[in-house]
Write a structure and sequence with these properties.
Blueprint (H helix, E strand, L loop, with lengths): L4 E3 L9 H11 L3 E5 L16 H14 L2 E9 L10 H9 L4 E5 L5 H15 L5 E5 L9 H11 L4 E6 H6 L4 H5 L9 E3 L10 H10 L11 H7 L6 E3 L4 H7 L1 H16 L18
Length: about 280
Amino acid sequence: MKRSFAVAHLQMLALDPPTLIDTAARCGYDAVGLRLVPMTAEERRYPLTTDKALLRATKQRLGATGLACSDIEVARLSPNIEPESYQAFLETGAELGARTVTAHLPDPDVSRAIDRFGRLCAMARPLGLHVAIEFLPWTEVPDVAAAARICAAVGADNGGILVDTLHLHRSNATIGELKRLPASWLRVLHIADCPPETPASAEGLIHTARRARLLPGEGAVDFDAVLAAMPADIPLTLEIPHDQRVAEMGLEAYSRHALAVARARLDGNNAPAPVGSGHAPAGR
């Protein structure tokens, strides 16, 4: 089966959306994820919700290249943020043709998180958007089980879970947990590998997630088992930022190489040998 491969904006975060789309097309990706809301104060902001010229240019490049917008991120429902503040974000995602919205729920009040996730799903439904909770091991929704409890409590037909193989491995989730999830909850799978050792601190976890992910087959993730537990036609999104390799190879060459490795490994063939330093083989 020929799989669809997208690239997450985090892997090419230095590029504005139109440039990201053109670069992804040259590399051979089928789709892009777009980060409309920055996750840190240091991230460059791409204001697609308010900059109409940027939005027009982004739509034009999607049309010209034939790439799809696979998802938009991130609706971050922390204790002081209401879902209604994301109305323009959702409408922009729908205008871009996105299928999925990534949501983070860093809130110690589980009842409030459930309420807000339900409201966000209700806002997204008439726009044709699926809302997926991304569990992050250093947050209040650290694993599959926590995300599943929220989804089950809300019961929205357009709600679900975004599985990232890096976070899946580092949250010590089991393949059995994945297999028990309703297929309708699973619309996208983020792909990245990691060393077998899990950092003890949130800072260490975040550093790897944002700056030093490994290519499929270089680390400890059992991709065969994960893919077997997911819907057979689930789109795959590479989210494999690696600062050192980008510095050595250049962003476009690195992202092209990442796609070649992922296609080979995840289609059951032997991946080409990684290029550049920073490689951490399984077992190190």
